[in-house]
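User: Structure please.
Assistant: Input sequence and predicted structure:
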Amino acid sequence: MSQDFAGPFSGRALLIFPASSSLSLVRAVAGSAVAENDIESMEEEALAETGNVVLNGCLASMANMLKQKFSLSLPKVIRGDGLLLFEAPTPEAGVGMVLFLYINFTLSGRNIRGYIAMMMDLPSISSCGTWSTRLSNGSLDRTTLPGR
């Protein structure tokens, strides 16, 4: 799943699961009330909603820590290899870097592993670093931070 974000720095957040885990994730989210033959038909919507909840939670936490606002796109389900997943949002975005965070979900007794990745271009990474430094120094002053 992917979701673009923009604010004091911009990029794309990705929630990545192996294809073999996607139906397990949908089963865990949907619960036993959904018939097995209906699981596949609701896979796309359930994955998008799961991505929306997880990625929005991560981005909202980041925004709250930095005392800033981010605008978010609607989540999209993307299927494919790394070249497709890490494609730049626009041709103008150029080459960026990716920060990987390993996550391990345990839902309804299922062990589902995945990754969260944040893709940003070099100016956004620099801005993110400045914000992170000021956060760790305890000097978050909304009037003097980059991007304001």
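Residues 11 and 120 are 4 Å apart (CA to CA).
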